[in-house]
Every structure is written in C-alpha cells, then in structure tokens.
Amino acid sequence: MNESESGPGSGRKTPAIFFDRDGVVNRSPGAGYVLSWDDFEFAPGFFELFRLVKSRGWKAVLVTSQKGVGKGLMSKGDLEEIHARMQATVQEKCGAEFDGIYAFTGTDKCRHRPKPDPEMIDTAAMELDLDLGRSWMIGDADRDIEMGIAAGLEGTLRVRGDKPITVEASGTVNSLEAAIAVFEGILSDESPG
Fold first, then answer.
1. Are the C-beta atoms of 56 and 14 separated by less than 8 Å?
2. For residues 126 and 75, what is the distance between their CA atoms, to the nearest angstrom?
3. Mean pLDDT score across all residues of the chain
4. Catalytic residue chosen out of the listed positions 22, 129, 140, 142
5. Is the N or C terminus of the chain more exposed, i.e. has fewer CB atoms within 10 Å?
6. What are all long-range contacts of 43-48, with beta carbons under 8 Å and residues at least 24 apart?
7. Ranges of H-type helices in the chain
8. d(Cα 191, Cα 74) in Å, to the nearest integer?
9. Helix, strand, or coil here: 6?
10. pTM, 2 dp
11. Other beta carbons within 10 Å of 168
12. Do 60 and 50 form a contact (C-beta atoms < 8 A)?
C-alpha cells in the first residue's frame, strides 16, 4: 500500500459522506416506516450523488434510525433484507455500495444509540478509519443535523422535506439534484495516485 492510499494502518484517514436513509437515500415514508423492499423507492438524484461521492474516493456510510424493528412492525431480518437489496441495487447502478451500514433499531440487543447521539458516526469512524473533520452528514431531520454537529463533522447538509426545521445546517437544499452541485465543490479528490 503506497503512502497516498487510505485504509487502516496507512496513516491517512478517508473522509466520508454520512447518509440518512428515509428521506435521503429513499423517498420519505412520511409518518410511517419502510417495512419491506416493496415500500423502498430510491430518491431522485441519489444514484448520481452516490456515484460522485465514490468517484472522488470518499467513503459512503448509511446511518439510520429504524425503530419499526423495536416496535415489532418488522423483524431485524426484514430490515437486513431491505438493506441487502438496497446494496445490490446501488452496486448494480453505481459500481459500488455503501462502505458501512449502521442502524438504530430500538431493540434491547441493538448495539447502537439513537440520533442525535453521534455513536453511529463515531463507530463508523473507528471501523472504517475515517477523517471526521473533513466528513459531511446529509439528512432531512433535525436529529441528523444534530448528530453530524455532535460528531464534529466538517459540515451538514439538509435536504428539505416534510420534517420541521429548528436546527440550522451548514447548508439546505430542496433536492438531491441540488446536493450534487453543492458536493461537486466540497468533495476533494481522494483517489490514490
């Protein structure tokens, strides 16, 4: 591994974009939950944004609250199936997949803490060797923005949706297509070489 490559033990940490799921990766289910793959619909512009992130050599990490598991509306297996099919589709469309998926399910056995606690980001940083000081969070809810701030990320970007806004993000956009334009200038090239 040469000096310009990143990864555990390389001495160089990689920045990441942390993606909220519902309302960012896929269309928001509103007040309910995405309980099966049939309910999962990728948000317009997601694949283009994801390809941009990966083309610049950044990591892409999913940090999501899926309390439908803890409420007994779906099983952990249902959630894992949704995420496996999501990963397969992203791989097919973008030639890459999320580097990590961290989900708070609200069950007693869940090892993660709920947003806005930054634990999911902190765990990802440790496991994936991430540079949080150059990383960003993209979400549609106050708790996403608060989590990114609490984790000490460089910035937070809100995709405006149906959730009330009481916490200020570094930037706010009306769509993922608009987020692409924002990140074009932010994502420095981390490609080896």
1. no
2. 28
3. 91
4. 22
5. C
6. 43/176, 44/175, 44/176, 44/177, 45/175, 45/176, 45/177, 45/179, 45/180, 46/176, 47/90, 47/93, 47/94, 48/176, 48/177, 48/180
7. 46-55, 76-94, 119-128, 142-150, 176-186
8. 39
9. coil
10. 0.91
11. 12
12. yes
CB atoms under 10 Å from CB of 163, counted, come to 16
Q: How far is CA 27 from the centre of its chain?
A: 14
Q: Walk me through the domains of the chain, giving residue ranges and CATH numbers.
A: 16-186 (3.40.50.1000)
Angle value at C-alpha 177, between 172 and 178, nearest 5 degrees: 35
Per-residue pLDDT tens digits for 125-165: 999 999 999 999 999 999 999 999 999 999 999 999 888 99
Active site residue 20: yes
Q: How many angstroms separate the CA atoms of 41 and 24, rounded?
A: 11
In degrees to the nearest 10, what's the CA dihedral of 42, 33, 67, 58?
A: 10
Query: Quick check: helix, strand or coil at residue 61?
Result: strand
> pLDDT tens digits, residue range 36-83?
999 999 999 999 999 999 999 999 999 999 999 999 999 999 999 999
Q: Which amino acid is at 33?
A: Y
What residues have CB less than 8 Å from 19, skipping those under 6 apart? 25, 60, 61, 62, 63, 98, 138, 139
Q: What are the tokens at 45? A: 């512009």
Tokens of 49: 């944004």
